[in-house]
Amino acid sequence: MGDSSTSSTSSISQGTFKTTKPSHFRAKINFQNIEIVVRKLHQNTINLSVKNLKKKQTKNTQLSEKMAARNQTKDLKCATHLLNDKFRNMTEEKKAIVRDLGFGGLMHIPPLRVDHQLLRELAKNFKLGENKLRTGYGSFHITPKKIGDALGINATGDLFPEKVDYKKLSDEDKIIYRRFQGKTLKSLTDEMMEIGVGNEEERLMFKRIFILYIQMAFLLPTTINKISPVHLVPIFEMEGIEERNWGGHVLTFMIRGITDYQEKKKKAINGCLFALMIIYFHLSKKKGKNRVERPPKPWIAN
C-alpha cells in the first residue's frame, strides 16, 4: 500500500461517449430493507435504481427473499447485524476499551441489510491500478484516508507487516499464536462477550480477541469461517496499535479481494465492500455541497 494521499475526483461529462449512452451508477440508501434492481447497458455500463421494499408483499416474494438471504454469505460477508448486536450487548467497560483502541466509530454501524448485488457492482466498477470507483457521479479515488473517514478508524502511521514470522516470535507469543490459530468467528465472538476485563492481563486478552473479531466480522472479512494469517498480524503489534494505519490495512486487503474477483474470476469477494458503499453514497451525496453542508465524520454515522 503506497500512496495514501487523496486526489481530486474527476467528473464524467455527458459528451464523453459519442455513440453509447452514458454510464449511470446511482443509488440512494435507506436504513431499512432495500431492493436493488440492476440493468446492464451497452459497454458494461450499469444503471442501479434503489427502491424501498413495500411493507406488504406476496408470499412468493417473501419466499424468494428468504432464499436469496440464505445464499448471500456464500459469495461475500457484510456482518452489520452481528456488529450492531454485539456492541449493543457489550459492557461499558469493554466499550471504553474499544474506543481506546480507536474503533469507537464502528459502534455507529446500523443493522443494515445490504443487498449483495450492490456490493458486487461496486467491485466490478473499481478500477484496479488507479484505485478509483467509476460511477455516474464521477470517478472517486479510494484512499486509506477515505476509508478512515467512512468508518471512523485511523488512516495514518505505519502499515502492519504482511504476515507473522512465527520463527521470530517469543515463546509466549508462539503460545498466543497457537491459541487463536484456526479459531472460528463464532468461538471468537463468544469468547469476546464472556471474558472479563477486571485486570490488566484480561484487558490485554480482550483487546487481542476484539481485534481478531472486528477484522473477521467486518474490516477484513473472508468467506472462510476461520482466522486467516493476515488477521493474526495486528495482535503481535499491540504497542501503539491505535496509531497504526487501519485505513490502509483495510484498503490493501479489499484490493486483493477485488483483484481476485476481477482477474481470477473468483465468485467470493474478500474485503470490506461495505466501506466502499459508504464512500460511494457519501461522495455522491455531497457533490455540489459546500463544506459546511457536508455530514461530519465518521460518515457511517450519517
Task: Give an overview of the whole structure.
This protein has 302 residues and is mainly alpha-helical. The protein has one domain (72-301). The protein has helices spanning 59-71, 80-89, 92-100, 116-124, 144-151, 171-180, 185-194, 200-219, 229-232, 246-263, 273-286; strands at residues 34-40, 46-52, 126-127, 132-135, 138-141. The strands form two sheets. The chain has a three-stranded antiparallel sheet. Mean pLDDT is 79; it is low at 1-24, 29-58 and 60-74. It comes from Arachis hypogaea (Peanut). This is Aminotransferase-like plant mobile domain-containing protein.
Set down the secondary structure blueprint.
Elements: E1 34-40, E2 46-52, H1 59-71, H2 80-89, H3 92-100, H4 116-124, E3 126-127, E4 132-135, E5 138-141, H5 144-151, H6 171-180, H7 185-194, H8 200-219, H9 229-232, H10 246-263, H11 273-286
Antiparallel strand pairs: 1-2, 3-4, 4-5
Helix pairs in contact: 4-11, 5-10, 5-11, 7-8
Key descriptive features of the protein:
single chain, 302 residues, mainly alpha, three-stranded antiparallel beta sheet, two-stranded antiparallel ribbon, globular, disordered N terminus
Total helical elements:
11
Portion in helices:
40-55%
Radius of gyration: 20 Å
* Inertia-based shape: globular
Strand order of the largest sheet: 3-4-5
Taken as a percent bin, the fraction of beta residues is 5-15%
Contiguous runs where pLDDT drops below 50 for at least 5 residues: 1-24, 29-58, 60-74
What class, by secondary structure content?
A: mainly alpha
Number of strands: 5
Quote the distance from N terminus to C terminus.
28 Å
Compute the number of structural domains: 1
What would the average pLDDT be, to the nearest integer? 79
Question: What is the makeup of the main sheet?
Answer: 3 strands, antiparallel
Order of helix and strand elements from N to C terminus:
EEHHHHEEEHHHHHHH
Organism: Arachis hypogaea
Protein name: Aminotransferase-like plant mobile domain-containing protein
